[in-house]
Amino acid sequence: MLDRALIRENPDRVRRALSRRQISSAVVDEYLELDRRWRAAVTALDVSKSERNRISAEFAAAKGKAPEVLAALREQSTKVGERIKGQEHEADALDARLTALLANVPNILSDDVPDGADENANVQLRAFGTPTAFSFEPKAHWEIGERLGILDFARGVSLARSRFTVLTGLGARLNRALINFFLERNTAAGFTEIAPPLLVNRESVEATGHLTKFSDLMFSVEDGSLFLSPTSEVQLVNLHRGETLEDGALPKLYTAYTACFREEAGAAGKDTRGLIRQHQFEKVELVSLCRPEESAAIHERIVTLAESLLRALELPHRVMLLSSGDTGFASQKTYDVEVWLPAQNTYREISSCSNCGDFQARRASIRYRPQAKARPEFVHTLNGSALAIGRTLVAILENYQQADGSVRVPHVLKPYMNGIDAIA
């Protein structure tokens, strides 16, 4: 959530930021008018409270005077009290409208984010490896998985509905190997492993910006009071919701493996086959809560860690800096790590690493105290996948496929696969 003072004192900056995201800036004018009315209501309320205090002082000084004097003061006090109740209701209602309006205003983009309407304006920063070459026509991962008997899409549909999948035998084993490999690498890099609940409350998803008109729909239970988590970023950021951390406790570095759930699995008709867009998928996530001056360096640390996992798996990939029109609601700046998928003859996102500045911390009320007795300030929050399990599985099946239909196991995963060289 943006600082209210920022919109009030520098509305043109917010207008420019919205324009860069291809979003109408009309909300700024609406906000300013509501804010003017709210401040007027608060001022009127303060005047009434001062009047009530004056009457109270007069009443105390009038003790022992004529009854009609005391009665008149009581009547004045009653009228002012009724007025205060109405003014408090008006101020609270305007404040709630301001909060609701601000909840749908996205983060201010960093100056170094390239301008552009969509992913076509994203900028490639670096690449590792070259697209995998084959002496045969490479198959898509769903063909490979079904032929090997390790991916069962039909049973996933029969157990749930479309875009749910059953992993079998060595497919499930390879999936588990990736989870263990990622978690071990992440914890070795200094991130503390967390095993959070999969259900999260409304306050948690609102705090991270996952419950806005710009967000994907989520699976909800109990009439919308609980949600199936769309990413463990939600749980990891909210571990410290409402807390004030001591400076020595920062940075907080967390990693978690969870299943994730999204009702909106991408655009209609896109990626309807295979594991790319599922309603249930798995990720190992990285999250940091840190001092503002650390966030840029930790952002680079997170994306480098995500890259290192793909390098260890020897999967061709590249790092993209997202354009203004492609950057997510809560993010100031995002790097996407994209892996090469031979069957699609293109790179696809496998990790999105974002610096959210103090945007989520304001919504979640997470502060830190720079020094003893200093005024608390908001932390910065960052997140990134390291990595998305299903998409890594897709990349391995397609990049490590052999002419005979088998799939080689990446060298770094063999210890997690009991030494198995290939899935055949």
Structure commentary:
With 424 residues, the chain is of the alpha+beta class. The protein folds into 2 domains: 4-102, Orthogonal Bundle (Helix Hairpins), CATH 1.10.287.40; 119-423, Bira Bifunctional Protein, Domain 2 (BirA Bifunctional Protein, domain 2). It is built from 12 helices and 18 strands. It has helices spanning 4-9, 11-20, 26-61, 67-102, 141-148, 153-159, 170-188, 202-207, 233-238, 295-312, 359-364, 389-399, and strands at 123-128, 151-152, 166-167, 192-194, 199-201, 220-221, 226-228, 244-246, 252-261, 280-290, 317-321, 333-341, 346-355, 367-369, 377-378, 380-388, 407-408, 422-423. It has an 8-stranded mixed sheet with strand order 1-11-12-13-16-10-9-4. Strand 14 and strand 15 (377-378) form a beta hairpin. Helix 3 packs antiparallel against helix 4 (67-102), helix 5 (141-148) packs across helix 12 (389-399) and helix 7 (170-188) packs across helix 12 (389-399). The longest helix has 36 residues, at 26-61. It is elongated. The two termini are 51 Å apart. The model has no long low-confidence stretch (mean pLDDT 93).
Overall mean pLDDT: 93
Q: How many domains, as an integer?
A: 2
Q: For the record, what is the CATH homologous superfamily label of the largest domain?
A: Bira Bifunctional Protein, Domain 2
Discrete helix count: 12
Strand/helix succession: HHHHEHEHEHEEHEEHEEEHEEEHEEEHEE
Sheet-strand content, in percent, reads 15-25%
Class of the largest domain, according to the CATH hierarchy?
A: Alpha Beta
Low-confidence stretches: none
CATH topology name of the largest domain, in short, is BirA Bifunctional Protein, domain 2
The backbone outline, from C-alpha atoms, is elongated
Widest sheet, order of strands: 1-11-12-13-16-10-9-4
Binned, the helix content reads: 25-40%
* Total number of beta strands: 18
Structural class: alpha+beta
- Label the CATH architecture of the largest domain: 2-Layer Sandwich
Q: What distance lies between the first and last C-alpha atoms, to the nearest angstrom?
A: 51 Å
Major beta sheet summary? 8 strands, mixed
CA radius of gyration: 27 Å
